[in-house]
Amino acid sequence: MPMNFIFKAAYVPIQWEEHYVGTEIDPRTQSFLTWESLESVRSIWVGLKGPMANAIGKGHHSWYANFVPAIAFLAAKTQKESIVGLNISYKIGEGGIALAEAVHGSAPDIAGKNLANPTALLLSCVSILRHLNLHDKADQIQNAILNTIAEGKYRTADLGGKARTTEFTNAIIDHL
C-alpha cells in the first residue's frame, strides 16, 4: 500500500496492524468486520478503513453505513466536472476511538492494476496522524501530497494525468 512506503520514507513512528474483512458476515459481530478487527480498533483506539466494495460497487456491504460530512481537498483542477476520490471521512466515537477512511468506493474495475489514486486514503492517514498528535508528520505528508498534485507531473487518470499509483506514490516521497 502506498501509505506504508510514504510513512517509512517520512520516518513516521508507527507500526501497522492489518486486518481483512471477509465476504461473509461474522456471526460474532453481525457484520463483515471480524471480531479480531473490532478488538484491535478498541485496544489501539484508531483505525483506518481501506476501500471495500459495496452494493453499488457490486461487492459486499461496508461494515458500517452512515452519513458523514467529508473534507474535500481541491488541490488541482481536473478534467472531470466534479472531483471524486479525494474525499475523506474522519469520525471520533465513544471513548475517543478514531476511524478514518476514504469516502470513495473500491473501484473494482481498476483494482490490482496500479491505476488507483491513493490520495483519499493517504489524507485519511494524515487525519489519524493528527489524532495521534504527530502533527509535524501529518503536515509533512499532506504538503507532499498537495504539492505532487499541484505540480501536475504525476497525476493519476482521475486527476487528468497518466501516472500509475506507484509513480504518484514515488513523487509524493520525493516531495517529503
Automatic annotation (TrEMBL):
Domain Isopropylmalate dehydrogenase-like: 6-172
GO CC terms, sorted: mitochondrion
Region forming the signal peptide: none
MF GO annotations: isocitrate dehydrogenase (NAD+) activity
UniProt xrefs under SMART domains: Iso_dh
GO biological process: isocitrate metabolic process; tricarboxylic acid cycle
Coiled coil regions, renumbered to chain: none
Short name of one Pfam family: Iso_dh
PANTHER family: DECARBOXYLATING DEHYDROGENASES-ISOCITRATE, ISOPROPYLMALATE, TARTRATE (PTHR11835), ISOCITRATE DEHYDROGENASE [NAD] SUBUNIT ALPHA, MITOCHONDRIAL (PTHR11835:SF34)
Similarity field: Belongs to the isocitrate and isopropylmalate dehydrogenases family.
Name listed for the protein in its UniProt record: Isopropylmalate dehydrogenase-like domain-containing protein
Organism (species): Arachis hypogaea (Peanut)
Taxonomic lineage of the native organism: Eukaryota, Viridiplantae, Streptophyta, Embryophyta, Tracheophyta
